[in-house]
Amino acid sequence: MEPPSKSERPDLRDFVLRKLARREYSSSEIIRLAVHKGYGMVDINRVVLEFEQHKWLSDERFAEAFTRDKLFIARWAPGKVVSGLRAKGVDVKLAKRVVEAIAPEDPDEAILAEVARKARTFRRFDEIPRRKKKILEYLLRKGFDPEAVYRLSDRLLTIVSE
What are the respective helix, strand and coil percentages of the chain, to the nearest 5? Predict the structure, then answer.
């Protein structure tokens, strides 16, 4: 599919403003979307710089919104949130700083709370080794620290068995 002709597509500034009116975006996302729509890189860079100077576009604000959403709604672990931010084009130092500032202070408590919330699901597995495997796989997929998950594995089984 060809990008729309110049007369069919909206002004780049309007395009970016409409995107930002819906939700926060990282600079990389805006660039990718604008390139996909067929805008030139010179114009894209100029508009992104202008929007960043006016604070209408902010990677830090995007990272904060993304982190809150993924930690508290999607229930991702901090490690997975950092990876998600990197995939969205956010600098790794900024991603780590924002996640550390927003994430719950005690990662062990977050792991225990997540397993307690999903305990009913894990109780379906009668065999203890299989139940333990399912718990560990779930937590690792969520992005929790592997060392903490394995260290707490016996306590996690106790929570599920109660």
Answer: 70, 0, 30
